[in-house]
Amino acid sequence: MSSTSKSQEELDSIFKQKRVVRSTVRKSLKAMDPSLRTQQDESIQNTVLEAPWFKSCKRLCAYISCKSLNEVDTSQILSEILQNPDSNTQKKLYVPWVEDKNSNMRMLHISHMEDLIANSMNILEPAPVDAQGNEREDVLQADEPIDLFILPGLAFDRCGRRLGRGGGYYDTFLKRYQDRAKEKDWRYPLMVALSYSPQILEDASIPVTPNDVLIDALVTPSGVVPITPRAIERM
Predict the structure, then answer these.
(1) Residue 26 assigned as binding residue
(2) In order along the chain (235 residues), what is the average pLDDT of each group of 10 residues?
(3) Does the annotation list 169 as a binding residue?
(4) What is the total count of domains within the chain?
(5) Is-above-0.85 flag for pTM?
(6) How many CB atoms lie within 10 A of CB 98?
């Protein structure tokens, strides 16, 4: 057997394992008590909003939570960023816009919640052009680096492994941002994922491929879990 077919077999096996883990975690999330979910949403968002690493960041990418996907709520975090009129603490926010079905996603700058519209899946995202007809700034074309990524996911472990929903959008985008940061010699941003308790699995139980991007830290209902040396240093 050639090394190519062997590696493809290994990848196929990993993708199969991922599907099994996704199915298990989806069932756990669906079974969560709504009051517990609300409590954990509040706790996680409050932890982020009070964290020094969040308060000090100037530019960040964050996801817009979708209730139907059972994602940790980010509405309070986004509101705090967009409604804060104090220019000394104002943060520049970029949020996801799905470009196509081939795992291509962009992060576009928004200034107000009104900049968001529902897409065909009823998920809020920015229109690529603003009300004045100007193209929104793409973070991959920005002149300054991002300090922080607030990431969604389906499952995580305390080794930094993150399991997405299977589309590959975030891993593809994050690889592109890594290349951009390297090219510009920028300090790499903190990669922080938000997670309900049922989403945190035993260490190394999440299968990974070479294309999977690891996270630096988790924010859980119990607090922050720094993982990488970068997170330990900055958090």
Answers:
(1) no
(2) 65 90 95 97 98 96 94 95 69 92 89 86 86 92 96 96 93 95 96 97 90 95 96 93
(3) yes
(4) 1
(5) yes
(6) 16
